[in-house]
Predict the 3D structure of the following.
Amino acid sequence: MNEPILELHGLSKVYPSGLKALDSVDLEIRQGEIFALLGPNGAGKTTLIGAVCGLVRPTSGTIRAFGHDLARNWRHARARIGLVPQELSTDMFEPVIDAVSYSRGLFGYPPDPGRIEEILRALSLWDKRGERIMALSGGMKRRVLIAKALAHEPDLLFLDEPTAGVDVELRKGMWELIGTMRERGVTIILTTHYIEEAEEMADRVGIINQGRLLMVDDKAAMMQRLGRTEAHIELASPLAELPKALAHFPVEIEQGGRSLCYRGGDGTGKGKSEVAELTKALTAAGIDYTGIDVHESSLEDIFVSLLGEEELA
């Protein structure tokens, strides 16, 4: 297992109003991984990123990046961290290439026109390099933010809602770029409202709500442990009641006896095999069926379920 590149211990942030934006968060990020932080608006995602990037002063807790305590050696560690913020925060009158070049110099790196060109070409911004940022579309402005964050070649990159408000084609291009960065060894932490993106790209997932980290796990392990299988079986003839041969399966009669609904596999990952056993039991009992539709939980299903449990607690 790779050594942690970022370690948060007991990280809390309480504002003067009494709002607890972060509540004793413990988190370790492994070198070279893509980590997705999921949570509703106001959950604490942006506050957590701000604390690591020096934009928010924590109330308590410690942050270590690259082995350095950020409270003692912030400047050295911050030079290796890139941030693509949620909001546009750059000089709109500045030409694209000047803005990106300035970001590199801001962290003490010497000019490198070749590297700047490489970044701009990768983001399809090279043809726009001389244009003022204010003249670009919303999607292109967001690409400029990514270019600025990459200009000093960070080892750890934060992406706060990087694809919000951009079209599907642009979003796909950005994710291809993220994949390329990971291949180069960049560690990536992202927040996103597009949970299917996290499901596709992330190695691990953390779910945060009301400032508390509810769960952190490898994506595949989380989906197997918390996922469930749902199967709808259309029957050839209606059933008045559930036969005894099916009593030990988690099934219910629906649609006036014309359909059986299986919901199971919770926490076991055995849903698919149990559905196969169910169909064999139906055949053995002489119950014909005309169709079956099997659905596995997505990461979004798990996310919604966890937040629902949190609200009921």
In short: The longest strand covers residues 4-14.
